[in-house]
Amino acid sequence: MTNTSNASALSSPETSRSEDGSLHGRIVVGVDGSEPSIDALRFAVRTAKAFRTSLEAVAVWTYPAGAEVALLVNWSPENDAHDILDAAVETVFSTDIPPWFSSTTKPGSTARALIEESAGAEMLVVGSRGHGGFVGLLLGSVSAVCAEHARCPVLIVHPTA
Question: Does position 13 have pLDDT exceeding 60, yes or no?
Fold first, then answer.
C-alpha cells in the first residue's frame, strides 16, 4: 500500500501547481504507528489540503542496539516500518489515497532522519509523543529535537482529551 510517487507526478483538483508545474511546497509527517503519530498524520492531511501542498509520511527504522544478529534472522525492522506506515495510511485514508500523498521508510535515528527530511519542506509535523520515551513526558524526545533542529517550521500535534 505504500505510495512512493514523486512530487513531479502529483496532481489533483485540490492541489495547485505553479507555472513550472511543481506543487506549492511539501509537508513531511513522522509516523511510528502510535496514536499521537496517527493524529499528526490526520492533521498533516488537513494542512496539506488547506495549503495545497504535497504530503510525505516518513517512518524510520533501525536495528535495536545490542541485538544479536542470529536472533534477528527472521525479523526485519525495515519490513515492520513498512507495515506500520501502511497501517497508519490505511487508518487515515482507507483505500482512497490521494495522488499528492507519498510515504517512505528510512533507516537511522528518527530525529535525525526527520530533520534531514525537513530540508526543503514547508513544515514538519510530528506527534507530541511516540512509542519511545516515558509515559509522563509531555513532549517526546524526537519532537523536542525536531523542534530545535528542523530546517523548517515544526508543528507538534498534542492529543485532544
Answer: no
- Total count of residues recorded for the chain: 161
pLDDT exceeds cutoff 60 at 77:
yes
Would you list the DSSP string of 122-160?
SEEEEES--SSS-TT-SS-HHHHHHHHH-SS-EEEEPPP
pTM: 0.78
Return the C-alpha cell found at 107. Answer: 533507516
| Residue pair 82/32 in contact by the 8 Å Cβ criterion | no
Averaged pLDDT, 109-135: 84
Fold observed for domain 24-157? Rossmann fold (3.40.50)
Starting from the edge strand earliest in sequence, which strands make up the sheet with 26-30, in order?
101-107, 54-61, 26-30, 123-127, 154-157
Please report, for the chain, the start and end positions of each structural domain, with discontinuous segments joined by +.
Answer: 24-157
Please state, as a whole number, how many other Cβ atoms lie within 10 Å of the Cβ of residue 149.
Answer: 13
Report the alpha-carbon angle 56-62-67, nearest 5: 165
Burial class (CB in 10 A: 0-12, 13-18, 19+), 133: middle
